[in-house]
Structure formats: structure tokens, C-alpha cells
Design goal:
- The protein is of the alpha/beta class.
- The chain is built from 5 helices and 6 strands.
- It folds into 2 domains: 100 residues, HAD superfamily/HAD-like (Rossmann fold, 3-Layer(aba) Sandwich), CATH 3.40.50; 35 residues.
- Strand 2 and strand 3 form a beta hairpin.
- The C terminus is likely disordered.
Length: 140
Amino acid sequence: MKIKMLVMDVDGTLTDGCIYMGAEGEMMKAFHVQDGYAIAQMLPGLGITPVIITGRSSKILEKRAGELKITHLHQGIGDKLTKLKAVAAQLGAAPEEIAFRFGWITTEELLESAKLYGKSPYGRHLHQVAEDKFKSFKKR
């Protein structure tokens, strides 16, 4: 299978995880230029659609997504897994055709998805990712 979608969160995934706030309430985020280059220049040539699904909403992100020509920007999303399933269906992407830049999919959600695929190679892969994520979380 070929990857069709790259799904990303923003804070701590596309940024350093910090939100800079000024005295007047203005906010800034730091985006890495190399991430931007890969998203804007490399993914389209590979036929991969970048998708952002995030719980926060900001004009800063709208501007950055526009610069990178990301047309699938979903902000203020509480149930990210449901939104992911809807976007995948819209783009015709099966679960094994979706790459994730983690940040918001919980270990439990990964294990739930792994159960759907049983002992197939993809089910085993999801199970391993969930185990690795849990180990990484415990080290913090």
C-alpha cells in the first residue's frame, strides 16, 4: 500500500510545543522551516495529502497552513479520531494508507484500532506503535 495522507497535530508536533504570549494577549508559535519545506515541496510530489487535526484554533495556524498550501486544516476538534475517520473517507484513504505525526492519538485508541485488524501485519504494527508510545510516555 502507498501512503495517501500525513495526519498531524500542531503544538509539540509542528511546533516546539511553546505558545509565546505578549502583554496584550498576542500569541506566537515557532514552526520549523524544514517541516514546512517537506510538507509544501515534497509531499505533493509523492501524492501524499497533508492533514492537520488539532484541538486548538488560531489565526497563526491558518496563515501557516495557507503558506504550505494545506487545504485539510481542522481546528478546534475535540474528537480527533472521528474527524480523522471522516477525512480519510473523504480522501479515500484506508487506515494502512495513513501516516501519523503523533501528538493526540492515545494509546487506548491505537490499541482499539489494532484490534480491528487482528493479527494482520497492519494490526501488529499498530499494536507495536501503541506499545512504543506507552513506553515513551512512561519515561517522561
